[in-house]
Amino acid sequence: MPDIAAVKAALTAQRIETPSWGYGNSGTRFKVFAQAGVPRTVREKLDDAAAVHEFTGVAPQVSLHIPWDRTDDYAALAAYAKERGLELGAINSNTFQDDSYRLGSVCHPDAAVRRKAVDHLLDCVDIMDATGSRDLKLWFADGTNYPGQDDVVGRQDRLAESLSTVYERLGEGQRLLLEYKLFEPAFYTTDVPDWGTSYAHCLRLGPRAKVVVDTGHHAPGTNIEFIVAFLLREGRLGAFDFNSRFYADDDLMVGSADPFQLFRIMHEVAKNGGLAPETRVAFMLDQCHNIEAKVPAVIRSVMNVQEATAKALLVDLDALGAAQRGGDVLAANAVLMDAYNTDVRPLLAEIREERGLAPDPVAAYLASGRQERIAAERVGGEQAGWGA
Amino acid sequence: MPDIAAVKAALTAQRIETPSWGYGNSGTRFKVFAQAGVPRTVREKLDDAAAVHEFTGVAPQVSLHIPWDRTDDYAALAAYAKERGLELGAINSNTFQDDSYRLGSVCHPDAAVRRKAVDHLLDCVDIMDATGSRDLKLWFADGTNYPGQDDVVGRQDRLAESLSTVYERLGEGQRLLLEYKLFEPAFYTTDVPDWGTSYAHCLRLGPRAKVVVDTGHHAPGTNIEFIVAFLLREGRLGAFDFNSRFYADDDLMVGSADPFQLFRIMHEVAKNGGLAPETRVAFMLDQCHNIEAKVPAVIRSVMNVQEATAKALLVDLDALGAAQRGGDVLAANAVLMDAYNTDVRPLLAEIREERGLAPDPVAAYLASGRQERIAAERVGGEQAGWGA
Amino acid sequence: MPDIAAVKAALTAQRIETPSWGYGNSGTRFKVFAQAGVPRTVREKLDDAAAVHEFTGVAPQVSLHIPWDRTDDYAALAAYAKERGLELGAINSNTFQDDSYRLGSVCHPDAAVRRKAVDHLLDCVDIMDATGSRDLKLWFADGTNYPGQDDVVGRQDRLAESLSTVYERLGEGQRLLLEYKLFEPAFYTTDVPDWGTSYAHCLRLGPRAKVVVDTGHHAPGTNIEFIVAFLLREGRLGAFDFNSRFYADDDLMVGSADPFQLFRIMHEVAKNGGLAPETRVAFMLDQCHNIEAKVPAVIRSVMNVQEATAKALLVDLDALGAAQRGGDVLAANAVLMDAYNTDVRPLLAEIREERGLAPDPVAAYLASGRQERIAAERVGGEQAGWGA
Amino acid sequence: MPDIAAVKAALTAQRIETPSWGYGNSGTRFKVFAQAGVPRTVREKLDDAAAVHEFTGVAPQVSLHIPWDRTDDYAALAAYAKERGLELGAINSNTFQDDSYRLGSVCHPDAAVRRKAVDHLLDCVDIMDATGSRDLKLWFADGTNYPGQDDVVGRQDRLAESLSTVYERLGEGQRLLLEYKLFEPAFYTTDVPDWGTSYAHCLRLGPRAKVVVDTGHHAPGTNIEFIVAFLLREGRLGAFDFNSRFYADDDLMVGSADPFQLFRIMHEVAKNGGLAPETRVAFMLDQCHNIEAKVPAVIRSVMNVQEATAKALLVDLDALGAAQRGGDVLAANAVLMDAYNTDVRPLLAEIREERGLAPDPVAAYLASGRQERIAAERVGGEQAGWGA
């Protein structure tokens, strides 16, 4: 049986990075519903992230998105974060919201557009230098909508060249994380549609290029935990973008659509060393809280990752291995399900209380009055969203 | 073998309705790329629709979307259309872009919101009276994002009550067309997710309630032509919203992703009487030309429907029936494929030339200089889009 | 909060019907792996079913499949069942394993084949009369593999006529349950692909025709619990065929692929009256234990349904309704998740012990030595499988 | 514009390999329908393949499947083939039909089972030496049905070791082709689920390890032609297993479900050098003619590949490149569609007649009386199928 002290230590050590854009407004192509209290500035986003960390104790890092979080003085921003118990995490680039990117960015047929995109990526590395961020997280909206629109192989060549330029610029200890996505906003092809494409580019780039697994970016029926296990075996799992989905890239709260899948993913992570700090797997959220209150939704999401992790850590690996080696299908499955069926909320509450936190972070946040306070205070100005 | 004169007559008689919003800007949740020459007003949208009809000869109807096409005087708008050889088609409602619709419209838990939504739908019927439109086309963004968010059955009750109020208001010869959609913008459930749900509500409402088949609104693997055939058998196929998709509701040009599927759909339509005017099936486009030039994309889409229809009309139904009755799988399939593999472009060019049209409408449009003219003229003001 | 006594009463009253074919050999098109101890006769299948009921206490009914379970004297078989504490449940027809059914059965273009199929269905009703079974469960492998192979509407006409003949033959209190399936073994179209098709036929047939929801028969992304809720609202949910799937119709143990989905389904059942005996919803398993031991797999499956039901019964409907009416997305979701995250195994163990059963049925079965006994005794003869 | 002489030369040079098992009986898990005239022996399978080559002129190779095509003297079999104008193609292994493979073969937890499987693969290489076959084609049914059943990473380790042993045994000029498949017969994980997994193993093995793309083995929504283009860019596309599917691995006639997809695949092949003999891409069929006559279905399939290839060769690459470089989405798409919409049947008929073949191979085969002859002659004995 798992050693409960070790389980508690692992849960205490776990870190979940929250995204600055998760605190801003978001929506679908049909409508963005604004919410009261949404941050107007990157500092207000950090304030919200600090609240999430205050109530959960495991979310000290915040991913930034450039240009949505552009500022004049990144060192000052890092200091602002530090004062609130935070550190600035991955820098996420944006090569999809300029009019010149209508047909792509780093894969665009026009060299001038590619140059512009690469310059932006290099700027992001500059920002990493200033913020002390370790990771450059790259997701490209590049692709085509219609068969024939552009040359698939030509686009790969341009992608490889662009990535290489950026990889060469990385400083000591910095990493390039390459995300893949099956579809959207490109409909016919995306230029990095699956983990295999990301992996092949990372292999060419070098050891500090790693794959990002966004849990909402796969075709129906894909076994995501297989990919996770495979990438861990290859030493190429860089980070998760956690969220969940019923149909497309819904960006719902992680664990809300298929909590069993999240558990299976965390089981592969735990079993294959992915929770060890030296493996350097980053556990990030990448969500859109279109209709629900944002800060409590992020808190809930952090808790969902914790619960899945706790269950994964409770898997009796000795019993599992024995059943697997013995070819006992039902017994092996039962070992896994025993852990999944355990109610880990009391264990996590206990860990929180030992650390001086409230046992139920959502309830504590709602009782704190903070939500009403920011709704009252954050009036006027322009609310942050994907476009700003 | 099909009688070519009858084929030509059917192709000449076919009408394809274009959507006013297809001429405006559109995009994904990530970015709307503006294009030069896009209409600023509903009248300019009609001008574009008139150009499509001028070059194709088969697109005299234009669907309106309220409030995007709101105007003070619908009778004047209808007159404006008539002067350009057009008539105003289906009125499309919008119950998804007001802040009060965050949790739904006609299915919202709050009766006041439902009343607001129903009032809008009744307004749309008033507009139909003014424009002479036959069809009220209803698509609801209603649904939920999270399990438990609302009561599925309660929402059906509210939906049924709302639809009933609207149906009762319809005038002589007016129809209610109810669209279904598996997902987006609601992710966990939509309130009319499939044809069965729409069909069941239509049965309750009465004979003038019909189902709309949007070709992008199904789960992967769904056989759309089966649904079309089934609804024709039941007398409940009201209209198509044509477009095409690779993954989700991509809203690409109809026939661009799977032209064989479009042919199979038109084969069921043609074989089961759906081209006969008395069946009153409306053939509408519902597309988003996010990255391609809009007017030529609509022309191309009209042509794609024509080509699929021509192939469907060329199916040798006698030979097909004989092979089917004889259980000859390969022969029956071959009869269908023979028609599909036929190049019908010369036939359609011939029909156009007999009507005094250019044989290649896209080439003719591009050669006309109109695109450059509207790009030069339509400067200033605010371009039309989904939000305006 | 739910009344625990009522929860326990509902769990005690619940009945889960097991399928005779689940005890026999099964496999994929690639290979059927035989297992030691598999029944050779229908009576041995009933012995296995009796063992499942002995250890779970909630599985007294057994579905039969004709001709796999054909016998000379059904009354004697019913008596044999009764002696073991069982009763014979739904009669499942088979119109797919005769060479004449290559192109379909009740939808076949040849009237002689249709007559043969209908005669088989009428025989099944005769068997129901003899066994006292309430339900005729119909799943048709009918469909086409290639576009054009047969006439979709013609097949519907033949289906309707065949069903009508069978419906007319039903005796007092007997029901016709019509299953739907998106694909397999027909690949291009099946003749009853979705709930809408089944529902439309049931409406025409009459009040004793109901829809069967097999949880493995939907397109990816389908919200099954929506369908369940909708059919309950319409009074047309006849039965479940429970199993689970990752990709196609995998027929895995129910709850093993997506336990949260199973919970959501049972939540809709419980909330909408589906557990009340007068609603007459039959909860059946329809699974294939291709590689795992069969009797313990059926016991596990019964327990999985019980656990999902228990969680569904623990949903605090008052709190849920209040959150839903108040439009509090996070709170409503949290109420549902609180029930789902509860470990209900202790509650079910308690119920079992109160009834004199072992708290862990799988462990008790394995400890009983029965599996070794049947493996030793059931030697020689021909093991039961899908073909026999 | 493409040079017609070059197009004709390429079409004349193209070779399509047919599978010995395509001539035998096949079916689904529900039923195998036997057909009159089906071969009883491997030599009769070769006779059928010779007929396909006789009427099409482009199908001289035949893939063998061991043990279904096991014989005492492979050299004699090769001579038999040669007398009929054929040569023996890829050797396909079978590690899924022995009872010991219930939990896998080369990935099985038991070393003895793995050894057995590897020994079979080494036997296949011996057979290649005897037949002169170039390619060892490996598809593994290995995988798991339930979460926890076995260790994903452990199975990869075993797979890698097994593959390495086989790769080392390959002789001069021999290749190892590794197929991937998302699902079936394993449901939870397969051990080579996607191209990325196959590619990663091939990279480790060496330059003579290549990926096989079976067109029916992907998740819904996958862009297969992207994978094809990517693998050609990497020099790792070994072969196609052509067939088509609507839902799962339906193994229908290639081009029958989505002929436009087949064209897009062949477009990437043609544009990226895949038709050049030195690229050594093998174009194989892998189909199941469950309900249609087998020899004419194979002929039709060969013709479907030819038609897609012809259309691909007719793409005006100069015009396409110009439109792509210019960012003209509609024009680039139109260039592709112009080729697709061309009726290439007259061109292929012309090529056949120039080679002394009948212009319509299916019609010529049916008129030849051969089908009736084999139906009359091949009576008695045991028909070949997947199990024999």
Automatic annotation (TrEMBL), chains A, B, C, D:
It comes from the Bacteria. The keyword Manganese applies. Its EC number is 5.3.1.14. Keywords: Isomerase, Manganese, Metal-binding. Residues 49-268 form the Xylose isomerase-like TIM barrel domain. SUPFAM superfamilies: Xylose isomerase-like. Coiled coil: none annotated. It is an enzyme of class 5 (isomerase). InterPro entries: L-rhamnose_isomerase (IPR050337), Rhamnose_iso-rel (IPR013457), Xyl_isomerase-like_sf (IPR036237), Xyl_isomerase-like_TIM-brl (IPR013022). One of its GO terms (molecular function) is L-rhamnose isomerase activity. Pfam families: AP_endonuc_2 (PF01261). The keyword Metal-binding applies. This is L-rhamnose isomerase. It comes from Streptomyces monticola.
